[in-house]
Automatic annotation (TrEMBL):
Disordered as annotated region, ranges: 231-254
UniProt source species: Pterulicium gracile
Pfam families to which the protein is assigned, alphabetical: HEM4 (PF02602)
Domain Tetrapyrrole biosynthesis uroporphyrinogen III synthase intervals: 50-288
SUPFAM superfamilies referenced in this protein's UniProt entry, alphabetically: HemD-like (SSF69618)
InterPro entries: 4pyrrol_syn_uPrphyn_synt_sf, 4pyrrol_synth_uPrphyn_synth, UROS/Hem4
Protein name per its UniProtKB record: Tetrapyrrole biosynthesis, uroporphyrinogen III synthase
Highest taxon in the source lineage: Eukaryota
GO terms of biological process kind: protoporphyrinogen IX biosynthetic process; uroporphyrinogen III biosynthetic process
GO CC annotations, alphabetized: cytosol
Gene Ontology terms for molecular function: uroporphyrinogen-III synthase activity
Amino acid sequence: MPPKACVLLLRTSDDKPVDSTNPHDKYEQAIRSRLTSYTSGTLEVHSLGVLKTQATNVQQLASLNPSGISGVVFTSARACKTWNAAMLVRGDIKSAHWAASGALFYAVGKGTAGALKNHQLDFRGTQSGTAEKLGDFIAADPELKKRQQLDSSLLLYLTGDKNRDVLPKKLKEVGIELIELQAYETRYDEHFGEVLEELLGCIRESSRVILGFFAPSSAKMALPVLQQQGIPIPNRSQNDSHDAESNSHGTPRVDIVAIGPTTAEYLSNEENIHVATTASKPTPEGLAEVVDVILSRRDTTGIS
C-alpha cells in the first residue's frame, strides 16, 4: 500500500463545475481516477478557495455595440461568467447579436470556451493554453489579417484586475488595437484560513503533500497563510537530502505543482519556491498526470 498522500488545490472559490449533469469537481475527480493504486484511506484531494471574484461592468458590456469590433478575447472562465451575465441583462442569452455581427471569438483554452458552450459562438485558439500563446495565435490568424487589410482589427479584451500585460503588448506590437474592459475583480476569501485549519490533520497525517497552485494571484495570497500554519514550503535552494531529513523529523515531504508556466514562473522567480513540475496542459488531466508522476517518483517513510 502506498504511503498516505494529501493533495491541496489552491484555487478561486467560484471555480466550481458548471455542468449540472456532473457536479463533481473535475480536477479532484481526474486525480482520484488516475491514482488508482491509492484507496480512499490513503489519498485525500481537496480544493481550497483562496480568492473569490465579482463581476464588474456588466451593464457596460451589455450595452456595447458589436459594430466595428472585429473580435472578443477571453483568457479566463470568470470573464465568461461576466459575459453571460451581460447577455442576460440584454435579453440575448445565446449572444445571437454578437454571432450575427461576424466578430471572431478567441479563448485561451477549452475550459474557458466551455463556460459559454450554450452561446452561439465559435471559439478560436482554444489549444493555446496561455495568454502569451493565444496572443501569438491571434497575431497570426489569417482571418483577422484579412480584416486588418479591409478596415481595422479592433478587439475587445475582457480582463480581470490582476491581468498581466503579455497579450495586449504582443498584439499592439503587430498593430492590433484593443479595447480593454475589466470584467471581474478578485478579492481574498476570508474563509480560506478556516478551511485550511480543518485540513491540517490531513497534512500532518500524510507522508506526501502536494500543493497545486492555479494562478499567481492566489499563490501570493495563500503562501503567507500556509507558512503561518507551519506547512514547510520548499525553496529553490532545497534538495532531496533536505527533504529526506525533514521526513525523518516527522514532517511531510511537500511538493509544489503549477497549473501552467505563468504560475510556475511567479512561484520560482518572485517567491523563490522550488516548483517540482508544471502541468503540460492547464486541464484536469494535465494536473492529474503531474500529481501521479510526483507520487510515483519515490516512496517515503511514514510519519511516526
